[in-house]
Design brief:
single chain; 457 residues; mainly alpha; Fumarase C, Chain B, domain 1; Fumarase C, Chain A, domain 2; Ribonucleotide Reductase Protein R1, domain 1; 3 domains; two-stranded antiparallel sheet; two-stranded parallel ribbon; elongated; binds arginine
Length: 457
Amino acid sequence: MSEKMWAGRFKKQLDSEVNDFNSSIRVDCRMYRSDINGSIAHAAMLGKQGIISKDDAEKIIEGLSDILADLESESLQFDMNAEDIHMFVEAELTKRIGDTGKKLHTARSRNDQVALDIRLHLRDEANEVVAILRELISVITNKAEEHKATVMPGYTHLQRAQPITFGHHLMAYAQMFLRDISRIEDAAARMNFSPLGSCALAGTTYPTDRMTVATALNMSGICENSLDGVSDRDFTVELASAASLVMMHLSRFSEEIILWSSWEFKFIELDDAYSTGSSIMPQKKNPDIAELVRGKTGRVYGNLVTLLTMLKGLPLAYNKDMQEDKEAIFDSIDTLKQCISIFTPMLNTMTVIEKNMKDAAAKGFINATDVADYLTKRGVPFRTAYKISGTLVAYCIDKNTVLENLSLAEFKEFSDVFEEDVFDAINLENCTFRRNSEGGTAIESVEAQIKSVRAKL
Ligand code: ARG
């Protein structure tokens, strides 16, 4: 264990188990880029403001840039005995450029430093998640285009309800993921303010220029209250919450893929590369990937609760509890990125079994609403028409037949409003393709949705 930077006040070294307990480098080392870029911006500002000499600032910036390059090329390894990434970088800098390195931490504290690092790091992660969500949506819209005329049953209560197209069904997910993008972008915009210069909690007596640092880091502005600057972790909660919603959407989609690939439905077949076999039952092809995505949703929800609970009782300003934020939010982001990246090609490569979708739609009296609508359009009050249609369904169940197989004479026994054109009205394709209201399942309505979503991408 190397000597701590704060060793001055202490007579004894830290117990080694305590050192491990206290250290966060295993988790926060991934923020090295943000940490070094933040320090470079800080050093430049110190030089510009005359808080340190221009020469010193240049030396520090050069040293930091070298460290960054060496970490990127992996010629420099993290010291896992260091307390955290901030201490590691500063120690390495001092090792390389001597005492000048010790000037970097002027007018700064690890409290505002770490707050800045997480914001910068999560801002990049948020951008990456948005990029892969866009890819997912574009795969969804392409599939929807391909299947804008593929008829399948639409369900409520998982009971066949009304016929829809598979394209229409898919486009519902496009809407969910679009909302997810907007939520993530929103969270990213709110986190893009610099806490640096809040120092330990109260600001500083040095003539700092916080806005210069924020601008250098491409941030929209500065946190206006130094206590808030160092103690705010709302943005981790916001991102964890947005991540939870994405996972919930992926999980619902997974659940459908699992159902659809069962023998009971057989609406789709997953590509061999995205399914697994059983160690004992040779006939099996399991949708493990979809199940894992559904399963991993739990840990992402858990991380959200971890963050909310970690923050709820904390007095202002910084408390060490907050070190726990990173493990939770990083795990959510890692899980999310992994799930989206594997879900997208799984969806892209699956085979749609159109015949089974259509056969399922032809069963289950899925056109009973259209029988009622037929009567209503001819002057029968909807409630009365609904009852007539229901009685017809009961009649068909008794006779073990379906509505479209009845004769006109049989229809007329229930209402003399029925004419020959009832068969046209309850034809499966017609029931589907005539629902051309905005947002409906008709081909042109689905095309309009696809167009609008593509414009937003
Ligand atoms: N590793 C710490 C964290 O993640 C950095 C801040 C430490 N600040 C302090 N006052 N001990 O929160």
